[in-house]
Amino acid sequence: MLDIKFIRENPEVVKTALKNRKAEADVDGLLELDHLRRIAITEGEELKTGRNKSSKAIGALMGQKKFDEAEAAKEEVRLIGDRISTLDEQVRELDEKIKAIVLYIPNLPSDTTPIGATEEDNPVLRTFGEVKTFDFKPKPHWDITEALKLVDFERGAKITGSGFPVYTGQGARLQRALVSYMLDLHTTEHGYTEVEPPAVCNADSMIGTGQLPKFADDMYYIAGDELYPVPTAEVPLTNLYREEIIDVNEPIKLTAYTPCFRREAGAAGRDNRGLVRLHQFGKVEMVNFVKPEQSVAQHEILVGEAEKVLQLLGLHYRVIELCTADLGFSAAKCYDIELWAPGVERWLEVSSVSNFGDYQARRSRIRCRDENGKTQLLHTLNGSGVALPRLVVAIIENYQNADGTVTVPEALRPYMGGLEKLG
Questions:
Q1: If you ran DSSP here, which 8-state letter would residue 192 be given?
Q2: Which terminus of the chain, N or C, has fewer Cβ atoms within 10 Å?
Q3: Residue 418: other Cβ atoms inside 10 A
């Protein structure tokens, strides 16, 4: 959430940032509401000061036996109180209207985020590995998973609906192996504390990280309980410290595996075959809490930690930086990591690594202390470390063999009981 004071003092900066993001918000309407709110607050404070003086005068008049004047003063105090109540209600109503607008305003891009109009303007920063060559035509993952009975799409659709696959046999074991591999890597080599959070969150948590109210249509909702199945472990991990003052002299680094649930309301008809776009999927997430002056450097460390997952698996990937028009709602700066999948012949996003600045911290009221002991908003960062379905796609398609088997990457074999091939 943006600071209303910043918007008030820098309206053109905000408007330009929104234009670069291809986002819309009624900044002028917001500032008018803010103006009315400050007028009401000022009048209310002046009236409260006057009421206090009048209240003191009543006691003096009563002591002097000036009862008529005292009664007149009491009536004046009553009228002032009525006006104060009216102003207080106006302020409450204006606060709600202001909040309704501010919660829909995305974060401002950082000064180093490239300005662009479409995803085609996202610069490629680096690549790792080479495109794998085959002496046969590589198959898409859905053919391989069906032949090896790794994933059952039809029974998943029967149980729940499309976008809810069932992993079976070695496919299920591969999922479990990947989760253990990633959590072990992050906790033993990257200094993370593992967390097992709830798989559902309340509305305050979803608001805190920016999923609500903007993306309500993309979220599943449990009516009656007023809970949301988590779309990413970023939500519960970040909200562990909601409304707290915490010590971040050293970055707090948390990681968790959770199932993730997304309706993908705006993506109907896209990537509806195979594992590329699902309504339920597993993901290992990394969340960092840092002092403001540390977040730029920590962002680079975080993307490197996500890359390490893929490097050890021997997968070809690239890192791109998102331009302003492609930037996520809460992010000030973001890197995407994309894996090459030869069977579907395309790049697949497997991780988004974002620096949110103080945007989420302001929404969630998470603070730390500066070097002088004064409280301030800290910065939050997060990155997938990494999402499972597209990682599985890349492994199956890159490690497929002519005989229909799939070679297990060496880094995973200890987690697969020494198994060298699927099939």
A1: P
A2: C
A3: 8
Inside any domain, residue 109? no
What CATH number does the domain containing 31 carry? Answer: 1.10.287.40
The enclosing H or E element of 335 equals strand 333-341
Q: Domain end: 102, 134, 152, which one?
A: 102
Q: CATH number of the domain at 299, please.
A: 3.30.930.10
CA pair distance 269, 281, nearest whole angstrom:
18
pLDDT tens string 330-374: 999 999 999 999 999 999 999 999 999 999 999 999 999 999 999
Strand partners, 288: 253, 381
Residue 373 falls in which region: left (phi positive, over 0), alpha (psi -120 to 50) or beta: left
CA separation for the pair 393, 343 (Å, rounded): 9
Asked if residue 173 and residue 63 are part of one domain, the reply reads no
Instruction: Look at residue 94 and tell me if it is in a domain.
Output: yes
Over the range 129-141, which residues count as b (16 or more CB within 10 Å of their CB) and which as e?
A: beeeeeeeebbbb
* Residue numbers of the domain that contains 244: 119-422
Please count the structural domains in the chain.
Answer: 2
Is residue 175 predicted with pLDDT exceeding 70? Answer: yes
Same domain, 60 and 150: no
Per-residue confidence at 265, pLDDT binned at 50, 70, 90?
low
Tokens encoding 205: 């948590």
- Picking from 375, 352, 353, 380, the residue whose alpha carbon sits closest to that of residue 364 is 380
Kindly state whether residue 114 falls inside one of the protein's structural domains: no
Q: Is residue 320 classed as helix, strand or coil in its secondary structure? A: strand
Average pLDDT, rounded, for the chain: 96
Cα distance between residue 281 and residue 170, in whole Å: 17
User: The dihedral of CA 346, 310, 183, 356: what is its sign?
Assistant: negative
